[in-house]
Each structure stands twice: as structure tokens, then as C-alpha cells.
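Section 3.1: Structural characterization of target chains.
Under the original work plan, the team committed to producing a structural model for every single-chain target entering the pipeline before any wet-lab resources were allocated. The record below documents one such target. The sequence was received from the expression subgroup and is listed exactly as submitted; it comprises 85 residues.
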Amino acid sequence: MSEDGFTRSGGFDWEAAEDFTALSEGELRQLLARVAVEERAAAYRHEVLRGRVDLIRAELVDRGVASLPPEELARVLLGERGGDL
């Protein structure tokens, strides 16, 4: 099982999952606070990436390029130079 609780086959490993019913109210509140912080960080990263994709699409439209192959778009999003863009 990986750190996030999912198995290699993609399913969730319920047997190895933490038993939340055994946690006290204080422990549950701490866990909720930590997960909320992680969720806000993930949402922020998502919005940053969405903004980058929007900028790339606008630039491609300005240049008259129809679309990029997924591999090239990934390189652009990662900030790698290459190609004629």
C-alpha cells in the first residue's frame, strides 16, 4: 500500500487504513485541520497550473498554432525549453 492508502491495483486498502473510530475528538480535530491545510495547498497548486494552461493556450492562439501534443504541453508546463515555442 502506498502512503495515500491506495494499492498498486488502484483500489483503497481498507484493512490497512487507520481506524478513525478509535481517535478522540481532539485527535479528529487535529487531523481535520491538517487535511484542510493540505487541501488548500493542493487547490492553490491546481489554480496555478490552470492559469499556466490558460496562458499557454492564449499564446498558442496568438501564434496560430492549433494544438500541442500532450508531451510538448507537459514540457511547457514544466518550464522546459525546446521546440519552436
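The two ends are 41 Å apart (CA to CA).
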